[in-house]
Design a protein that fits this description.
This protein has about 190 residues and is mainly beta. It has a single domain, classed as Jelly Rolls (Sandwich). The chain is built from two helices and 15 strands. The strands form five sheets. It has a six-stranded antiparallel beta sheet, with no helix packed on it. The protein is globular, with a radius of gyration of 16 Å. Bound molecules: 5-phospho-D-arabinohydroxamic acid (PAN) and zinc ion. The site of 5-phospho-D-arabinohydroxamic acid has 14 residues, from strand 3, strand 11 and strand 12.
Length: about 190
């Protein structure tokens, strides 16, 4: 039988007091994801930087359960493109997700198979509802601070990375001429 449980997110570190899985994604795991492939190869040759990390609370991956955890995207750029998560659709497309931003600055890039796109800004306190059918990727746009979000989603959702790996997102988040961030069309998407 399951009993209710608690954990804490002690500030400012925001590493959960309970962690079942800690996933690290380095530059080498992001092959083909950044637009500037030359800059990617150069950076990788120098240092296989840690791009983002996920701390997960494990639950059975069945209908009725929820998965939750903390996602931390570190500051950095490949060429002009900010560090980001791989991004995915849920394998069960009709499953939603909630994100709550705890620290940093960034955005969530989203699109759906119907051809709609949306980019929402994330700052501490922002709650983002990602409806069913929307692929999602978080991007850290700060130069010095991690983007930290908490996520909650149905435990049976599953992850489809392949669609995004093949096509990329139709919008990219890059450094602007003034040193801020801007959203541009992905030239690789026709
Ligand atoms: C999150 C993401 C997490 C890492 O838990 O899995 O932020 O991003 P990628 O899975 O795209 O590498 C989530 O959206 N789960 O469904
Ligand atoms: Zn998700």
């Amino acid at each position: 039988m399951d009993f209710p449980f608690i954990f804490t997110l002690p500030m400012p570190q925001v590493i959960p007091s309970r962690v079942d899985n800690h996933i690290e994604r380095r530059l080498s795991a992001m092959q083909g994801q950044f637009l500037d492939q030359e800059a990617y190869a150069e950076m990788l040759a120098r240092d296989d930087r840690l791009v983002y990390e996920v701390y997960e609370i494990e639950r059975p991956e069945v209908e009725g359960e929820m998965l939750m955890g903390i996602s931390i995207v570190h500051p950095g750029k490949v060429g002009k493109e900010f560090f980001m998560t791989k991004g995915h659709y849920h394998s069960i497309l009709e499953t939603a997700e909630i994100y709550y931003c705890l620290r940093g600055e960034g955005c969530m890039v989203m699109e759906n198979p119907e051809g709609y796109m949306c980019v929402e800004t994330l700052v501490p306190g922002t709650v983002l509802y990602v409806p069913p059918r929307w692929a999602h990727r978080s991007v850290c746009t700060s130069r010095q601070d991690d983007l930290v979000t908490m996520f909650i989603y149905p435990a049976n959702a599953g992850h489809d990375y392949g669609t995004i790996e093949r096509q990329g997102f139709r919008k990219l988040v890059v450094e602007s001429a003034s040193g801020g961030s801007e959203v541009i069309d992905n030239p690789r998407c026709k």
